[in-house]
From TrEMBL:
It is found in: Cytoplasm. Functions as a ribosomal silencing factor. Interacts with ribosomal protein uL14 (rplN), blocking formation of intersubunit bridge B8. Prevents association of the 30S and 50S ribosomal subunits and the formation of functional ribosomes, thus repressing translation. SUPFAM superfamilies: Nucleotidyltransferase (SSF81301). It comes from the Bacteria. InterPro entries: Iojap/RsfS/C7orf30, NT_sf. GO terms for biological process: cytosolic ribosome assembly; negative regulation of ribosome biogenesis; negative regulation of translation. It holds the Pfam family RsfS. One of its GO terms (cellular component) is cytoplasm. PANTHER family: IOJAP SUPERFAMILY ORTHOLOG, MITOCHONDRIAL ASSEMBLY OF RIBOSOMAL LARGE SUBUNIT PROTEIN 1. This is Ribosomal silencing factor RsfS. Belongs to the Iojap/RsfS family. It comes from Quadrisphaera granulorum. Interacts with ribosomal protein uL14 (rplN). GO terms for molecular function: ribosomal large subunit binding.
Length: 147
């Protein structure tokens, strides 16, 4: 399935496979009600992965549901989680699929840590609007910045 994907702040250097997995993970998260979904190309900054996918959930039950949906979706694409951290508390769960790393956080943690600020040197991967909804401060890179 071909999807329109482009960089917002620069050229995407992540592998096509990583981008495919990131879009699938973002879509699975969105379908379970995750908000503030964002994909960042970190392939120039890190050697261990190409893309970070960030998502927020309202409570620990939703964090778990989002994590399960992402694992199922990526398994169907032939990619299984290599490492999972944080499931016991379900405040911030990290899923390492090698090509991509997914961070599912409680909404308040997602806003507090604003990981996109730490990785702002890499381009954001524009996800299909049915995944992200209308552009938000997270998409434009202005989240957590005082006005």
């Amino acid at each position: 399935m071909q999807r329109r994907v482009r960089a917002i702040l620069g050229k995407v250097t992540a592998t096509p496979r990583a981008v495919e997995l990131a879009v699938a993970a973002a879509r699975a998260a969105s379908e379970k009600g995750a908000t503030e979904v964002l994909a960042l190309d970190v392939s120039e900054q890190l050697v261990i992965t190409d893309v970070f996918v960030l998502a927020a959930a309202a409570n620990d039950r939703q964090v778990r549901a989002v994590v399960d949906a992402i694992e199922d979706a990526l398994h169907q694409l032939g990619s299984d989680v290599v490492r999972r951290e944080g499931m016991s508390e379900a405040r911030w769960v990290l899923l390492d699929f090698s090509d991509i790393v997914v961070h599912v956080q409680l909404a308040e943690d997602r806003q507090y840590y604003a990981l996109e600020r730490l990785w702002k040197d890499g381009p954001s991967i524009e996800l299909p609007e049915d995944v992200t909804g209308p552009r938000s401060a997270y998409d434009s890179g202005t989240a957590g910045i005082a006005r």
